[in-house]
Amino acid sequence: KKARQVTTLFHKYTQQLDQIRASVAAGSSTSAKNAIDHSDVENDVKAEIQSLEKKLEEIGGREEYQRASQMNTALFSTSKWVLGILGRWGWLDGLIVDSPNDS
Question: Residue 10 in contact with residue 56, Cβ under 8 Å?
Answer without folding.
Answer: yes
